[in-house]
Specification:
Helices cover 24% and strands 31% of the residues. It is an alpha+beta fold and 382 residues long. The strands form four sheets. It has a six-stranded mixed β-sheet with strand order 6-7-8-3-9-10, with helices on both faces. A hairpin with a 4-residue loop joins strand 16 and strand 17. Helix 2 runs parallel beside helix 4 and helix 3 packs across helix 4. The longest helix is centred in the middle third of the chain and has 18 residues. It is elongated. Bound molecules: adenosine-5'-diphosphate (ADP). The site of adenosine-5'-diphosphate has 11 residues, from helix 1.
Length: 382
Amino acid sequence: MTAMAGVTFEHVSKKYAGNDVYSVNDLNLDIRDKEFLVLVGPSGCGKSTALRMIAGLEEISSGVLRIGERVVNNVPPKDRDIAMVFQSYALYPHMSVFDNMAFGLRMRKAVPAGTPPGMSREAAIKQRVEEVADSIGLRQFLTRKPRQLSGGQRQRVALGRAIVRNPQVFLMDEPLSNLDAKLRVQTRATISRLHRDLQTTMIYVTHDQVEAMTMGDRIAVMRDGILQQLDTPQNLYDHPTNMFVAGFIGSPAMNFFTAKLEQDNQELYIAGEGFRVKVPAQYRQALASSAGKEITFGLRPEDVADVRMEQNVDESSVVPVTVDVVEPMGSEIYLYLLTSGNQQFVARVDPLTQTAPGQQMQVTFDMKKMHAFDPTTQQTLL
Ligand code: ADP
C-alpha cells in the first residue's frame, strides 16, 4: 500500500529575489488526501510557483507547508515522496522508454512496493515498469527512444515515470499544453482515469479553465498571487465570489453590464444601457441594500434566449437587440448582440435560431440565473 497524503499551505508566501511583489501571497489551502485539485489562473498568477514549492523546487519565503502531517519547508525534493510531470516531459533523450521509466526507482535504490521476497531489485523494477507500461498503453514502445515517439506518447512516458514510483502526491504543471487539441482531450480523460485508479492526491496546474472544470474535484482560482476562490467546479460556475472568477470560468465568458438597481413600488429593476429587466422576487431581499445604486449585472451567454424559441415569455425580461455577428458552432450559435444603448453582449442560442447580422430581434434574460456585483469592490452581491 502507498502512504497517501494531503497537502496544506498555511499562510505561505513567496517573493523571488529581486522582485518587489509576492508571486504567492499568504496562501491558505488545504488539499485533501486523494483529491484532484486544480490550480488555475492566468499566466503569472503564481500557480507554478505554488506547485514548485510543494515539489521543493522553490524555497518558501514565509508560512508553513505540509505534506500529510509533515512540515516540508526544509525537506529536500528527493525526500518529499512526490512525483512531478512537466509540460516539457523532461525525458532523457539517450535512454529508452524503459530506462526513462525505471530511472526514478534505480536512483532511489529502493525496491518497488509489493516486491515478493527473494525477487532481485532489477527484476522487481522490470515487473513494475512493465505493469505501468501496460496500464497506459506503452508496452510496445519500451525499447524506443523518446525521439521515436509522438508528443502524446512522450507525455505518457512522463506520466508512467511518475506512476512507477508510487508517490504520495502527483504534481502536474500544464502537462497537456504541448499536445494538439484532440490529443489534449484524450489525455485529459486518461489522467482523470489514472486518478480514479491510483487514488492518489493529484495537484494540477493549468491556465485552461476547461481543463480545470473537467478534471478537478475542486478548483483553486488564483490571481496576482492571491487565492480568489476554492470550490467545486459547479459552485465556482454558479456562485463565483467576485467578477474575476465569474469572468474567468465559463466560455464564452459571462456578460457584464453597467446598470442601476431601481426600486419601483415593491419591485426592483435592473436598468442598463437600452434595457430594463425585473429582479425575481427571491433575490429582492439580498439586493435591497443596493437599491438606487450602480451595480454590475452579470448574465451567462446560455441564459439569453431568442424569444421566438421560448414559451411563456415573461415580458419583464425581454430586451430588444440588434444582431452584430453570428457564429454557428454546429451544436449551438453564438450571437454577438447590441442593446439599443450599444452595450455589446454574447448569447449562446439554439442552433435552429434564424437570424443574420444587422437584424433586429428580441431576447429574453433568464433572470433566475442573474448575477450582481459591486462595481467598486467587484465582489459578488448575489
Ligand atoms: P504562473 O504559473 O501562474 O504562470 P508563475 O508562478 O510562474 O506564474 O509566476 C508568478 C510570478 O512570479 C510572475 O510574475 C513571474 O514573473 C514571477 N516569477 C516566476 N519565477 C520567477 C523567478 N525564478 N524569478 C523571479 N520571478 C519569477
